[in-house]
Amino acid sequence: MAALTEIRSKRSAPTPIEATDTVHFSSTRRRLTPAQRKWAEETGFDAKPGSVCLLADTNGKLARVLVGVDRQDALGALAALPTMLPVGEYTLDADSVPLDAQLSALGWALGAYQFTRYRKAKRAPATLAVDTATFETLAPLVSATALVRDLVNTPTEDMGPKQLADAVKHLGKVHKGKVHEWVGEELLEANFPTIYTVGRASHRPPRLIELTWGKASHPKLVVVGKGVCFDTGGLDLKPSDGMRWMKKDMGGAAHAIALAGLIMHAKLPVRLTLLIPAVENAVAGNAMRPGEVVVTRGGHSVEIDNTDAEGRLVLCDALAYGAEQKPDLIIDFATLTGAARVALGPDLPALFANDDAIADTALAHGRQVADPMWRLPLWRPYRKMLDSYLADFANAGPSRHAGAITAALYMERFIPDGMPWVHLDTYAWNDGDRPGRPRGGEAMGLRAMFAFLQSRYRA
């Protein structure tokens, strides 16, 4: 939490930031000296969102900072400042334009993130001082977001199925959870045929990683994450531009791992099962072929129409296994379809749910914590798009229509009637740099789902 520090009574006063959304500096005007006001005007500070003006005292020492903000975007209001301002400690002035204190501080911390596994940080971030309660609330969220970003940003050579398993094992060690995994042909012996089939062509064997935690008397919660560590498309090979960023196809697993960490850190009263099917969808002589039929753990026969629709295949075995535990709720995260991005763009995860009340509550919490999602329908007439002439159904079909919906409908077949289920089709990626959202891996829907779970399972 280098970007946020707690305010302590003996600490010398940090440099204040005064946020303003008007050129007249709003309530700060009366507190500026004539020289400071003239300096702001001479340097062209116009209080537009993102504009910054540094003000010195009579000794030439940095005394305050004026920042133009969009007060409708508290999360992004201060997010560019950690790498813009001189290194030091700052606090938001009490007379500033009102901003949501937690969201603006969270945005500051998210804006300080840098991925440093392969190179040094470009610079140290400036620090925002916050009260102890805010720090304790935000610290787990910032750490969880950084974990998602780190996992997704790491290239496949250093983030294969084993490394995902290592991340789960570390989580289990920290929170005293139990971890078990099935590796390679153990998947066949334990009846996880689709996970094995998707991953069998890689030199790194596929696996299913399971973490369990919590008291048996608490409601059962199953969290599943798609862990396709690299996706070539299989024999239905992706073109080079479509394959370039497929290290991020384990973004669903990254979200599920981070959410499990938040649940355990908060000690939510649940009996948690985390399931990560981890594979590489590779090309080799034993690769899964179009036209094959696989009988899944759920007992359905599935025709492989497209080897590049592999995410739903690894997920369906995990979902069927999770459903066998008769949970109160199943949540899955997956970087599942390009169709969701076409429909909603890169910022909005598509949310599917078989329970309207759960969907509405999850969406409301997403809005409250500035982590928006958008619901798409489980339009069951579209199931016919996955019809097969020789199996129960196919994993894909000839139509390009409603790709995100048909993928969700495929997975819904593995959820028993009446069992609450939420599916997030998330991008897990920023295509470019924006305040608080650096280019690369991103947590999308993580804070929303954690807030939803906190409300559903109050300690």
UniProtKB/TrEMBL annotation:
Ranges for domain Cytosol aminopeptidase: 306-313
Endpoints of the signal sequence: none
Cellular component, GO annotation: cytoplasm
GO molecular function: manganese ion binding; metalloaminopeptidase activity
Presence of the UniProt keyword NAD in the record: no
One record GO biological process: proteolysis
Alphabetic keyword roster: Aminopeptidase, Hydrolase, Manganese, Protease
Entry keyword Hydrolase: yes
Similarity field: Belongs to the peptidase M17 family.
Protein name (Swiss-Prot/TrEMBL): Leucyl aminopeptidase family protein
Species in which this protein is naturally found: Dyella dinghuensis
